[in-house]
Each structure stands twice: as C-alpha cells, then as structure tokens.
Amino acid sequence: MTEHRPHRRSFLKAAGGLSAAVALGGGGVLAAASTAHAAGDGFGLRIVDRNEGDPRMWYYRFATDAIEWDPGVNVLLPDGYHTSGRRYPVLYLFHGGGTDQDFITFDRAGVRAWTAGKPIIVVMPDGGHAGWYSNPVSSNTGPRNWETFHLNQVLPWVDANFRTYAEYDGRAVAGFSMGGFGALKYAAKYYGHFASVSAHSGPASMRRDAGLVTHWANLSSAALDLGGGTVYGAPLWNEARVNADNPVQNVERYRNKRVFLVAGTSPDPVNWFDTANETQVLAGQREFRGLLGNAGIPHEWHEEPGGHVIRDYMFRRDLDGIIARLRKA
C-alpha cells in the first residue's frame, strides 16, 4: 500500500512562515423533496456558473450572502445515476487547508476512480484556504460563514435537487486535515445530520498543548482568509465557540455513529510542516480515541506509516464502510 503524496497539504501549512508580527484583528436544516435534475437556485444560493456536461462530475458556483466571494461545489454522481431512478446516500467530503486546496482537491487526488461503481453521491464544497468549517468570530474581508454555507445552504440544496435520502441514515461526512476537523465538528454539532464521520489526518483536540490547534486556526485564518480577523477570537478565544467545536469535549455526540480515524506515525525527513502537523494530529486522535473507548463508543482507527498526506487506500477502505453504514441506494 502506498501513500498519495502529490497532494499533501496541511492545516498547519496555511500558517507557515507566519510570525508573531501577524496582526490578529478583533473583532441545521433538513431537505425538501428531491428532484431528478439540479436546475435552480434556492436556500440563499444563486447559481452564477455551472457545468453539467460531464456524466458524473457536475460543477456549480454560487453567489451567497454567507461568503463574500462565489464558492464552488463539485457533485460527483454514481455510475448509472441518470437512468436508475433510484435515490442515493450522500457523502460530504471536505478538503484541507492551504492555498492549493479547494473543492477540486479530491478530483485531482482520484476520487472518480475511488468511487467508480459505488452507489453514492459525493459532494465536495469549497471551505476556504483556512476557513476551518466555521463562521469566524471576526472578519475584515467580508462574510466567510462556511458553517452557514455548508449546513444551511449546500446540504438542503443538494437534497432538493438530487435524488438523495434526506435523513440521518442517508448522509456521511469526511475530510482530510482541516476538512477532517470540519467533519468531526459537523457530525457532533449537527448530530441528526450524519450517520458516519471520518477524519483523515484531521485534528480532534483543540485545547491540548496549550491550545495549539486553536492557535493554528486563528493564525492561518488571519493570514489567508480574514485579513487579520480570526476563527475563534484573539487575543482571547470565544470559549463557548471552542467548547462547541472541540471533538474531545463532545464525545457523547458520536454515539450511534460510524467513526473512522486515520493518522500518520512517521516524521517526514523533508517537510517539517507535515511532521509538525501529523505529530499533533496523532496525539489528538489518540486522546479522542481514548475518550471514545472509555465511553463505550465503537470506532475504527488506523495509524499508518508516513506523514500528513492523503492516503488513497484509506479513503477506499473508508468509502466501503460508509456505504455499508448508510441506507442503500
């Protein structure tokens, strides 16, 4: 088994090169009836660009008051979708942080091949360079309310425009790095939305090591997305927001879900960003796993050789587990 190394990027790398001089500025909806063809606006979204020419990968770009610019969404349809007449479960798949990751990250990484012949719809939305799947405490660059965009707009829009199961047992959420954190956060915070959650090299503990992950979220968002604003507030955090988003503080909200965790164990001799990232990810996932075990909550975990990278073989394994857990097409 090999790692998919060309698409490495970390939630930490977004903050790479930052110094203490960086200025840190102060400052769930279920779906309507589905239709067979995505063909309209709604839920606070207005389609400004689209491409439905590919039989599987359909692309949309939306204008929304939740985000200052027009974020994109890829919807990967299963083979035979257009003729089957069936409804399908949905996987929401979130990309990591950094300037080279967005809603086409997993298309570059090989998601079409991973899902070939699989009876599931995969939705891959923008999440910002360092959006952290959150509504920020402060922004100096206009709205960057990714949580609102994903949960209150994209999710019901997908259920209204594609043949999905608009229910708990019809949805999974997964992601890599920053996206793995987003998946863990959404699965707990919006308990009734997702029956399966997967974090591939995603941090699960925000307060350990003096809150290192929270500091990274603030630094990276200030530098890349918010013009000095922050996701969680600086110099003082919004403690209620951190408490609500921190997976290790919300362990009971993973009960009765399928939980899948992956972290790397080997330092990268070349890329110190990846080494630092995965060291923190591994420690946080171990903390999280211990709490899940103490609570008697089943979970599947893997510690794999290598650093902070997308592992295609782990995503394939995860996908099979997701399909087995969700309602069948």
UniProtKB/TrEMBL annotation:
Family annotation (Gene3D superfamilies): alpha/beta hydrolase (3.40.50.1820)
Key words of the record: Acyltransferase, Signal, Transferase
Short name of one Pfam family: Esterase
Q: What is its EC number?
A: 2.3.1.122, 2.3.1.20
Which InterPro entries does the entry mention?
AB_hydrolase_fold, Esterase-like, Mycobacterial_A85_antigen, TAT_signal
> In this entry, which stretches build a coiled coil?
none
Write out the catalysed reaction: 2 alpha,alpha'-trehalose 6-mycolate = alpha,alpha'-trehalose 6,6'-bismycolate + alpha,alpha-trehalose; an acyl-CoA + a 1,2-diacyl-sn-glycerol = a triacyl-sn-glycerol + CoA
Signal sequence coordinates: 1-38
- Please indicate if the UniProt record lists Transferase as a keyword: yes
Q: What class of enzyme is it?
A: transferase
Q: Does the keyword Chaperone apply?
A: no
Q: Which family does it belong to?
A: Belongs to the mycobacterial A85 antigen family.
Question: Cross-referenced PANTHER family, in alphabetical order?
Answer: DIACYLGLYCEROL ACYLTRANSFERASE_MYCOLYLTRANSFERASE AG85A (PTHR48098:SF1), ENTEROCHELIN ESTERASE-RELATED (PTHR48098)
What is this protein called in UniProt?
Acyl-CoA:diacylglycerol acyltransferase
Instruction: State the organism of origin.
Output: Streptomyces physcomitrii
The taxonomic lineage of its organism, from the top, reads: Bacteria, Bacillati, Actinomycetota, Actinomycetes, Kitasatosporales
